[in-house]
Amino acid sequence: MSVSEFLANLVIPLNLSVTLLVLAAILFVVRWRKTAAIITVSAVAWAVFWSLPTTSLWAGGLLEQRYPHEPAAALPTAQAIVVLGGNTANGRPNWFESYNPKMTVLRTDTAARLYAADKAPLVIVSGAALDGGISEARMMASALERDGVPAAVIIQEDHSLTTHQNAVYTAKVLRQHDIQQFLLVTSALHMPRAMASFQKQGLNPIAAPSPPQIVVPDEPDFSFWLPDLRTLNASRSIVKEYLGLLVYWIRGWV
């Protein structure tokens, strides 16, 4: 695990809270009890803050609404559809609800609908094998084929491991095929960083995000202010996106 990956996992609310509690316990043992108490309170407050649905709705909503989702019919036609690898909240339509594999809405589903609506004649899938196995590009290509997209119109970019590399390597493919206009498909939460990354490469993508997932569920007993473990676990995606934007800005990638 690289340093950047370690830090990215450390700032995840649950991980950071546990780490701070361990640090507080060590400080308590060595009699730095006031400092230990402050760190303990901070750890608990951080976990509670991100376990509240209202926090995710606010912080995640700011990202998801930067490029609002539109139905395929409302989007312009282009020369290609670019789909980025990745998975937000396992594709749950609403991440405040339990996971149901039959109800998932994946990025490839959005791309397949765009292709079926004749929004572009070509689909480019971007993503390497994160675990050394089958690449995300290959898996997305297979999913698209199952959804009726012909294999002949799918181009696989299977070297990118990050959003920055998605943009860099896909830009080469786009220029090789003289593609100027393209629809960019990723999750609504990831779209701000993806758009900025592609624009940094001198490209002009058209945002075509999947439907937002951080929305108020249609449940009569839903509470904005009741701490929830599922919400705490899912908040990692929001925190990582904000951290990713900061790191990309520091490195000059956006």
Please provide a written account of the structure.
With 254 residues, this protein is α/β, with parallel strands linked by helices. The chain has two domains: 88 residues, no CATH class; 139 residues, HUPs (Rossmann fold, 3-Layer(aba) Sandwich). It contains ten helices and five strands, in the order H-H-H-H-E-H-E-H-E-H-E-H-E-H-H. It has a five-stranded parallel sheet, sandwiched between helices. Strand 4, helix 8 and strand 5 form a beta-alpha-beta unit.
Query: What profile does the largest beta sheet have?
Result: 5 strands, parallel
Please report which band the strand proportion falls in: under 5%, 5-15%, 15-25%, 25-35%, 35-45% or over 45%: 5-15%
Radius of gyration using CA atoms only: 20 Å
Q: Cα distance, first to last residue? A: 24 Å
Short précis:
By secondary structure, the protein is of the alpha/beta class.
